[in-house]
Amino acid sequence: MNDHPPAESWRLRADIDLDALRANVRALTERATGGAALMAVVKADGYGHGLVPCARAAREAGAAWLGTATPDEALALRAAGDTGRVLCWLWTPGGPWRRAIEADIDVSVAASWALAEVTAAARAAGRRARVHLKADTGLGRNGCQPADWPDLVAAARAAEAAGAIRVTGMWSHFACADEPGHPSIALQQRAFDEALATAARAGLDPEVRHFANSPATLTLPAAHYDLVRPGVALYGLSPSPETGTPADFGLRPVMTLRAWLASVKRVPGGHGVSYGHHYVTPGETTLALVPAGYADGVPRHASGCGPVLVAGKWRTVAGRVAMDQFVVDLGGDSAAAGDEAVLFGPGDRGEPTAEDWARAAGTIGYEIVTRVGHRVPRIYHGESAS
Ligand SMILES: *Cc1c(COP(=O)(O)O)cnc(C)c1O
């Protein structure tokens, strides 16, 4: 990673290693079986890493598709000049169907109300909408239930025959792919194959069938179909400890979150630290103030247990994480205001990883990186010149 001499005095920043992201895209593409293409999932501001720079880097590394949750995210990609295939899947009634169709965005449909809205919008726009039909094969979240699937595919086929839409995709999403061997995995795959067969009988012939999120991309080649759809693995995180470590799959974490100490001071023993005095200094000691708090995405649930590298060692959050800051006890070690505190990164400089924070806070690495706040500047490394 380049060394950025601070052009200003930094409080806290997230360094984003786009070379690592490109390498992760390539590693995942190599893992995709049967020539399956890759959709880089860049929803939620690229899992907190930045939508547009991550989308560009993923394209440079060969991602044929980009995936977003909301239509706004997909439209933002177009506004930034992306012209490749983009799918967005989280629609609500009255959504910007027509703008999506006019922007050549593939849209997901899982219910008859959505099919009716997209068909009407396509007619109004005077062009065919590209539609991916989503089956609920067992996740119980979005997606069409098996009982409703025959009607949905018949209606989609009718809209296709009428020239309003083209069914370009057929897809589903796993519930437990991050728990290898979970019995629901095989059941969901069987349900998906049945849904595909029903659609084929109805006369639908999609361009791409896709099912695999990161854990399925990493561990379930039989679920790769025509396109894999990883998110978290692009950013170099493992979907779960059960799946393996990032290194097991040749993935490298993309984000490093660092702060610069705002205060270092000696305090006597018996001194309460931070709101509620949940930490009391065991003896005379040195406290360091890390200027990062829950407004920056540092989980308050990591109070008393979050790890941070300061003065060459892992320290533990002393007392509560506040909105903008937390304290660590350096014991007999010394440091100075302005010294670096690394909250997480790839781990090769001895710093904790996002997974370490997830364990401390009782959550998943996804949430640690995605919640890094808007107040934290993202500094990009390895951006292409174009
Ligand atoms: C978020 C998401 C993905 C990516 O999931 P990861 O576990 O991050 O790989 C894929 N598909 C859908 C529908 C999603 O919502």
From TrEMBL:
Its EC number is 5.1.1.1. It catalyses: L-alanine = D-alanine. It comes from the Bacteria. The keyword Isomerase applies. Residues 254-381 form the Alanine racemase C-terminal domain. Signal peptide: none annotated. Pathway: Amino-acid biosynthesis; D-alanine biosynthesis; D-alanine from L-alanine: step 1/1. The keyword Isomerase applies. Substrate binds at residues 141, 323. Its cofactor is pyridoxal 5'-phosphate. GO terms for molecular function: alanine racemase activity. Keywords: Isomerase, Pyridoxal phosphate. The active site is at 43 (proton acceptor), 275 (proton acceptor). It holds the Pfam family Ala_racemase_N. The modification N6-(pyridoxal phosphate)lysine is found at residue 43. Belongs to the alanine racemase family. Catalyzes the interconversion of L-alanine and D-alanine. May also act on other amino acids. This is Alanine racemase. It comes from Streptomyces litchfieldiae.
